[in-house]
Design a protein that fits this description.
The protein has helices spanning 12-18, 28-38, 43-46, 92-106, 121-129, and strands at residues 2-5, 52-56, 59-68, 75-83, 111-116, 147-152. Helix content is 30%, strand content 26%. The mean pLDDT is 92. A 6-stranded mixed sheet has the order 1-2-3-4-5-6, with helices on one face. Bound molecules: coenzyme A (COA).
């Protein structure tokens, strides 16, 4: 059985545990550490209403961590998303994004943004497929290039 819910603090360790394997070891140990540091416990304390966790038969199947821009409430931001490799290509990522877009629209948002690594070509293809546009390279400075995606909600 597949269920979807708001995450809570107890989910932090479960999500941390998949940041290596679900990313296929992207950028090695340094990449795994970078991702762990990008997903601290505070997201599971202070950003739960705009985040989602999917379980299949009680096992973690997918998650999305998002938030509302504190600078511009018309912009919502997807910080991290992951789907169990065994369950990819079935529309779970698309459903999580559809959920986020719907929450954003209901609260008057105009656009959704996210950032991904230049090395993460799968993520770039996925975001392009979901209507995100205008990638901007070298976003976070030398050695910290990022690809920025924006999707107008219309
Ligand atoms: C990116 C990711 C979340 C996609 O999840 P998913 O459940 O497999 O995606 P979906 O099945 O909903 O696919 C949605 C669309 O994107 C396309 N897509 C997804 N991954 C793709 C890939 N690697 N290459 C090309 N297209 C891809 C699908 O073909 C689909 O298009 P369609 O609906 O027109 O057929 C998943 O591959 C993942 O967890 N990757 C590792 C973590 C990661 O890189 N996260 C993003 C950065 S934080």
């Amino acid at each position: 059985m597949t269920t979807s819910r708001e995450p809570d603090e107890n989910d932090h360790a479960r999500v941390q545990a998949v940041l290596g394997p679900w990313w296929g070891g992207l950028k090695g140990d340094a990449g795994a550490l970078e991702r762990a540091l990008l997903v601290p416990r505070l997201y599971f304390q202070h950003f739960t209403g705009t985040s989602r966790l999917v379980e299949r038969d009680g096992e973690l199947a997918a998650f999305l961590i998002g938030f509302v821009s504190q600078t511009d409430p018309a912009t919502w931001y997807i910080h991290f998303v992951g789907v169990d490799p065994a369950l990819r290509g079935q529309g779970i990522g698309r459903e999580l994004y559809a959920w986020f877009f719907e929450q954003a629209r209901r609260r008057g948002a105009k656009r959704v943004k996210c950032v991904t690594s230049p090395e993460n070509t799968g993520s770039q293809a996925y975001h392009a497929r979901l209507g995100f546009a205008a990638p901007v390279p070298d976003y976070d400075g030398p050695g910290l290039a990022r690809v920025v995606f924006t999707r107008e909600l219309g």
